[in-house]
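Structure, all two chains, one model.
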Amino acid sequence: MPNSSNSHQSKGQPTDRRTFLQSAAAAAALTAMPGWAQAHPDDFSAIRGEIEKRHDEAVKRLQTWIRQPSIAAENRGMNEGCELMMEMLREAGFSGVKKMPTDGQPGVFATLDAGAPKTLGLYFMYDVKQADPAEWSSPPFEAALLDKPGLGKIIMGRGAVNQKGPEATLLAAFHAIRGAGKNMPINLVFVAEGEEEIGSPHFPQVAGNPEVAAALKKCSGVFMPFASQGLDGEVSMFLGAKGVIECELTSSGERWGRGPRKDVHSSNKARLDSPAWHLVEALASLVSPDGNDPAIEGYAAKARPLSSAEKKMVGEAARRMNEAEAKKLLGVDHWVHDVSWEQSLELLVARPTVNIEGLVGGYTGPGGKTILPGKAVAKLDLRLVPDMTAAESLALLKAHLAKKGFSDIDVNMTGGYDPTSTPADSAVIRAATAVYKNNGIDPVILPRLAGSWPGYVFTGEPLRLPAGHFGLGHGNGAHAPDEYYVIESGNPRVQGMDGAALSHAEYLYELAQVGSSAGSQR
Amino acid sequence: MPNSSNSHQSKGQPTDRRTFLQSAAAAAALTAMPGWAQAHPDDFSAIRGEIEKRHDEAVKRLQTWIRQPSIAAENRGMNEGCELMMEMLREAGFSGVKKMPTDGQPGVFATLDAGAPKTLGLYFMYDVKQADPAEWSSPPFEAALLDKPGLGKIIMGRGAVNQKGPEATLLAAFHAIRGAGKNMPINLVFVAEGEEEIGSPHFPQVAGNPEVAAALKKCSGVFMPFASQGLDGEVSMFLGAKGVIECELTSSGERWGRGPRKDVHSSNKARLDSPAWHLVEALASLVSPDGNDPAIEGYAAKARPLSSAEKKMVGEAARRMNEAEAKKLLGVDHWVHDVSWEQSLELLVARPTVNIEGLVGGYTGPGGKTILPGKAVAKLDLRLVPDMTAAESLALLKAHLAKKGFSDIDVNMTGGYDPTSTPADSAVIRAATAVYKNNGIDPVILPRLAGSWPGYVFTGEPLRLPAGHFGLGHGNGAHAPDEYYVIESGNPRVQGMDGAALSHAEYLYELAQVGSSAGSQR
């Protein structure tokens, strides 16, 4: 899931879009409307009316979706989650909604032929991260509507912002366009997977299916609905994302041939090797002594440094975003190596990483247990930048371990993929920028997201399509407890679900326009 | 809990004691009887009859005890477990059975004044290790009686051998002596704790209570009932045990002041320090690069090398014990550094250790979760040999971490204590040896147990009493799934519960005798 790190400095008083729209001053309103809306004020007004009319229906749809857990990591509710999303697609006007089997969880393929000149790809996920109910203030699969001070009415639940909330918001836009008696301005090719949260191991099987690939080839670009606004309403845009490898390193007596195969009494440490110590030593070899810089041999060799244009973007972002707020949100006092705010953003954008997600070895319950464990596991993620690839990086990790004396340690890549990049002047980016600007938001543009999404399936060979995220709206807590998405915003700078749905409608119309002048722009 | 590592080589055909006792050839039988039994053949016979008569009652008592979980590490059933043991003591003839409050779980103190010239101390524990029912073939708190091929009828459950089985066996001996109309041959001072499995943090408060200390001072020694027989019926005796420190090392952004205080999205590794990597680096500094030799500065400086007498014991043990069987039981192919069998036993007896019991950091569930954890924990145990002490070793660990740049890592000692040693010619050891030999068993004697028990409370200042374990019988699986204790042995060389109870009766009478000639032998 992308991590947007939205922490903007408020500069002046950005336009309060909601107040604007609700004002009776049509002329003033029109200056804030995107091109298509200015050209078709009646369409715009009718769609907005439908969105508001169908508000309760859209919220109920999102609640229904959140209440169906679909967690690939736990193989929980996957079939039900897939079927539910397929049903929602049919209701939203898609035809030929197909379940696409893979070697893992199924994907989904669907199309909506509007008879329009342009075609747009949509990428959805129907899986969500795990959730431990004990950590939540409201049950993660209850989808409760709550009042959150400073935010307004929110929906709380796993998937609220990542990604069911924004996805249900786009569906709401589809219903509103149809409900207003309008034609969809652009044809749609829909692809989805149920394994985004485990590193999309089988999504290439969906996108690579001949029928799907042929449909995607007709697209001018692909986008995923996203709640882009920070707490202050500002937006960050990303011209790509880091790649990722998620893997488990397992040290075991069984594979090592030393130490015990099962847990034994810890007194035997005096005469037995320890798979847990073996893992610790292997891990220590992967990074610099302070744990910060990757030390896997050759790992960062292909990492492309930031271009001067990219450095300029980061510099501009550093000026516009608020370091103190970012540190507060993360709960940190220092950046790594005590670098500056601008350098921290450069690292975030350009630095490959080796991160420990989790350590699990031997006895993990309360207190102690005097065992020498037969096995210990480290869960790692590695973030990759262009021109690194997932396959090469995995091979380098394995070669490094072998060279350092840890060839017995099992490296199980559970998911991951290459980095993704999209040109700043591609249709999906230009249209997004236009809609944000027409809404009074000047987006911060960054060379790439520090998180990852499987955009490489679209931006890489053979499709080479531009691909990105779009959407107004705000939420937080992806991968964490108390994940939420704003339904009715209490902050005029931040859009609720209706405002976000309207931004999606604007985006579709804008893409239909932009596409006509920059359709070949990939 | 002591780990006896019983793996004896069968030498010749040791006397089949059970067959012997059951034969009508009284003269032949008498030669196998210990001193007191030879002097009082009627007593011996009457007590044996009572043990057999009360077999079902004794088994039921043990079942009742196992069915009451009492797990200090989980603070589960502790009060109920304490009360149950107190009730069992009253039934066995103890008076003034008192619950002894501590800063943790309560201990128990009781006495049995037989008007005898000598007094013996008893040490019990009423807590057991944790148990995960999913790992057991019979539920751990069901105390099922099962037939186990090659062993006979066993009782399976948590605490079966560690330590409720042997303790219930000693209680059965008390009931039989009284049931036979005999006087207890020796006065008893009973002390127990409920925190043995978490490192006995508060047992000194029990033994140090003025009333308890005054009672213990009158003892010629202290013993804990123990199932000493290996699968082949042979017995190992230990003249002490290693000390231990159990501790948790916690690396957290909170204490460190670097990295996040809570879990954050893993993409932030590019710009944030990682408490998990910090822990890995700290751990790696504690041992040699192969994970085998402690590298805590000054840690082993006070480790006393084996004396030539102790080396001789180990050499003799290596000749008599079976390396292949030991490796098979442990599930290992190699000793550390590929040392010989004799060297492996020397290490076991004489080498201080730094062991990882468990690693718990960040996400520990199935698959991955892209977080940078705010905290990571390693559970360690350190085994200490004379003249190391727990307090000094803990201080050295903390000083080492501080010197290496890890002063922020929290070291929480959850339990532990000093090593313990008892002279070979003390009463408790001489009496045990005599009873074993009279039962046709020539015990292997080792300088110390590689595991730990809080014998230092008795052998250290101010009491300076000899202390050890005793008992025939067999069980296995302490701290592991499918823990069992043999109730009716299918192997004539191994005693079931009745034979073990009889050995306890013999031991009490033997101590009453030995005590008179070596009462001052501590």
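Chain B has two domains: 20-241+420-518, 243-303+351-417.
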